[in-house]
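Section 5: illustrative case.
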């Protein structure tokens, strides 16, 4: 049987127990938080005063912070790309059993969708950014799509989602810490609970990979290694501003995110170490020679990356982002 067909068989096998995953890692819409729980209520007489408070507190944080937060929000808003990618994986039939993989992906998307909604509204109310430019960037990012280097391979894709969910947890959690120090309790609470969602989703994808390791360890190890050799691309890799080329903004955004303390090269390394530990790759035996070599590579990679990170100098250049320019009303 070909590798591709084996992957399909494994995915179909995992799908039989997917309903158990729903209960462990997803929360019904009626029970989970909704964006309005963290925003001023437009039906309340105190709405205007609450908005004024947000606008005043928002002045306490510098442009680097707001650029990082906007980037996080735009990344969350690009959900149509992520859902369509996942639904196209080998072993997933979006027209098939509604209780299977396709249902997981749609429910996961529905939960993630709330993150972009609440951040978008909060940033809009803050008055700190040019929302029209932000909206143009978001539209470009959805239209440009992304290529995470997994093709239709579910093993590689679930490595990606395991990594990326933890990365977004780190990013939102760091935003919460910065906001709390600035006295922005509402934004801190909002970001903290978003981070909680991301951690819950991360644990789900980690569990999927753990189950794959149990039945197809050598191929799963090779897929994990291949993803890390080529580095995990961020969902916002194609960021751009109005009238600019695809991906022309990402490097500047990455510098700002590191400088602001929202997400750094060390966070990337820490995530890799956590995945190595979560999947206990140091304990695998009876792998194929190639897979065992991949395991050794993965075990040594964090130290190698840490030595590289120590030599990285994040520029202190004050980049000009159109997101932060005053809105010109035509």
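Designed sequence:
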């Amino acid at each position: 049987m070909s590798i591709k067909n084996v992957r399909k068989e494994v995915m179909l096998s995992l799908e039989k127990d997917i309903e158990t995953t729903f209960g462990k890692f997803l929360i019904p819409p009626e029970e989970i938080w909704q964006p309005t729980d963290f925003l001023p209520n437009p039906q309340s007489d105190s709405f205007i005063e609450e908005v004024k408070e947000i606008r005043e507190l928002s002045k306490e944080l510098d442009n680097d912070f707001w650029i990082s937060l906007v980037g996080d929000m735009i990344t969350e808003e690009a959900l149509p790309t992520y859902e369509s990618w996942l639904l196209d994986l080998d072993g997933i039939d979006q027209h098939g059993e509604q209780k299977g993989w396709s249902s997981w992906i749609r429910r996961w998307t529905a939960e993630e969708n709330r993150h972009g909604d609440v951040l978008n509204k909060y940033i809009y109310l803050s008055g700190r950014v040019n929302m029209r430019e932000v909206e143009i960037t978001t539209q470009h990012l959805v239209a440009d799509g992304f290529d995470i280097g997994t093709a239709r391979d579910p093993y590689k894709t679930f490595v990606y989602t395991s990594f990326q969910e933890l990365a977004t947890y780190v990013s939102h959690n760091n935003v919460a810490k910065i906001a709390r120090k600035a006295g922005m309790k509402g934004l801190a609470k909002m970001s903290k609970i978003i981070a909680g969602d991301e951690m819950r989703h991360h644990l789900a994808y980690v569990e999927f990979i753990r189950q794959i390791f149990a039945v197809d360890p050598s191929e799963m190890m090779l897929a994990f290694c291949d993803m890390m050799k080529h580095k995990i691309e961020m969902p916002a890799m194609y960021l751009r501003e109005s009238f600019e080329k695809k991906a022309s903004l990402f490097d500047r955004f990455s510098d700002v995110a590191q400088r602001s303390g929202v997400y750094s090269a060390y966070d990337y390394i820490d995530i890799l170490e956590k995945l190595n530990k979560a999947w206990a790759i140091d304990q695998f035996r009876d792998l194929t020679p190639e897979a065992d070599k991949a395991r050794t590579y993965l075990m040594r990679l964090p130290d190698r990356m840490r030595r590289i990170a120590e030599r990285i100098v994040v520029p202190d250049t004050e980049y000009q982002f159109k997101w932060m320019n005053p809105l010109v009303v035509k």
